[in-house]
């Protein structure tokens, strides 16, 4: 039976910030940043201990 685990990056603290610039584009033409969180859903067949993915 295939199961899954879901990871919410905001709740789990899996976050990072990044900066970028897009030259000659008024809205993003200056250096600015964004915060991101990793969200994932991992599917697989649980092993005999019920583990899908060993971190």
Q: Would you spell out the secondary-structure blueprint of this structure?
A:
Layout: E1 3-8, H1 9-12, E2 15-20, E3 32-37, E4 39-44
In the predicted model, the low-confidence regions spanning at least 5 consecutive residues are none
Count, helices:
1
The pLDDT mean sits at 89
Radius of gyration: 18 Å
Domain tally: 1
Helix-strand sequence:
EHEEE
Question: How far from one another are the termini?
Answer: 21 Å
Task: Report a brief summary of the structure.
The chain is mostly beta strands and 55 residues long.
Would you give an account of this structure?
The protein has 55 residues and is mainly β. The protein has one domain. The protein has one helix at residues 9-12; strands at 3-8, 15-20, 32-37, 39-44. A two-stranded antiparallel ribbon has the order 1-4. It is rod-shaped. The two termini are 21 Å apart.
Keywords:
55 residues, 7% helix, rod-shaped, two-stranded antiparallel sheet, mainly beta, 44% strand, 1 helix, two-stranded antiparallel ribbon
């Amino acid at each position: 039976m295939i199961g899954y685990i879901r990871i919410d990056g905001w709740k789990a603290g899996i976050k990072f910030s990044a900066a970028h610039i897009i030259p000659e584009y008024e809205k993003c033409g200056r250096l600015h940043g964004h915060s991101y969180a990793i969200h994932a859903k991992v599917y697989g067949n649980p092993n005999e201990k019920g583990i899908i993915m060993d971190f």
